[in-house]
Amino acid sequence: MANISPYYLQIGATVGMLVMALLAIFIRMKASHRPVTIRKILIPPLGMSTGFLMFVVPETHIPLLWAFIAFLVGWFLFSYPLIRSTRFERVGEEIFATRSRSFAFILLGLLAVRLILHEVIQRYVSIPQTGGLFFLLAFGMIVRWRVYMYKHYKEVLVAEH
Fold first, then answer.
1. Does the CA dihedral 13-123-118-131 come out positive or negative?
2. What is the mean pLDDT of residues 21-36?
């Protein structure tokens, strides 16, 4: 990684984030046509948890307080708009996520805030540490959102029977 300019890493990361955001929007819109299951709710944070392996690399190490704060920012702030835009409805025996018109805008807004935060934080810590901090922020956001989805799914499942 020492041979790659930080400028090019920043451009690559930004383009990668834009592609991932558009992919998430596309997948979410497509998923609204398929029933939701507990498995579909729980697998994303479990799959994402493999990202903790990045902290094996010494360059990504950050103070535990920073890690805790990043996780809590994701948990309390970044998850809130996702939670507010997520609803389920029962159609026959199956439960579907209702399509939210605001979801795409929420994802793009979160991406914009993340890019601004990234620019500020990157001035004080290395690129790998910045990546670790934003991974923890995203993980906190996804875990809280999925916990909410799981609880709401169970409520809809029980309420209609």
1. positive
2. 78
